[in-house]
Amino acid sequence: MNKVILSLLLVASISANALAINPPGTKKVKIDNEVIYIDQNEIMIADWLEYINYLEHHYGKESEELKAAFPDGITAKEMMAKEKLTHPLTGITHEQALEYCKWRTAAVNAVNEETGLGKVEYTLPTEEQYSMLIKTFGSYEVLSDKNRTERITGLQSRVYELTSEGSVLKNNGVFSKEEKIPDANIGFRCVATMVKQKK
CA 121 to CA 193: how far, in whole Å? Predict the structure, then answer.
């Protein structure tokens, strides 16, 4: 079993109740009648390296799946530099971001199946979700489970962020489809939804 699954199992065993409320890595946000779970941070280089590690072990070092996952213009050696692990991941395409969401969904659901928690689906935020978040809470804040205000790191301040529609959320809160992707200034974060089970 790879390190990602093992680490997720550890989190699940320590705090199953927390996972039942918030999918791993996310903060709960309630806007009007809609509840979304959004990443507190952009996807970091360290997060992407876990994904790379999974692809390498699952498909092999020379696999097309692994080669297709590397960001534009970034080598594995550069990504592994310690000072860069907490930097937002940039230089990826919209398709690469969506593939990451699929992998993350499968990894978390593998844990949830073993712990009896519900199914989760990770995707890119929509323009509407971003707009509601910014309008209701400002650039950085979300409501935590304990009704305290907590920050979403980097929203509109560090890198532009990809949306599910293929546009980019810029620092001024405007969505643009004119940005060149991939780009060293464009990253992404995920939103998660709890998937209702058929009875």
Answer: 5
Cα separation of 108 and 86, whole Å? 21
What's the CA gap between 88 and 43, in Å, rounded? 6
8: tokens are: 């997720």
**What is d(CA 16, CA 20) in angstroms, rounded to the nearest whole number?**
6
Distance of alpha carbon 75 from its chain centroid, rounded? 21
CB under 8 Å to 174, separation ≥6 — which residues? none
- Both tokens of 136, joined, read 């209701």
Instruction: Read off the pTM.
Output: 0.82
User: Which of 51 and 154 is assigned the larger pLDDT?
Assistant: 51
∠ CA 170-173-177, rounded to 5°: 45
Find the mean pLDDT for residues 68-93.
Answer: 80
SS3 15: coil
Q: In terms of pLDDT, which residue wins out, 157 or 39? A: 39
Amino acid at 15: S
- 181 pLDDT exceeds 60? yes
Q: CB neighbours of 63 closer than 8 A, spacing ≥ 6?
A: 55, 56
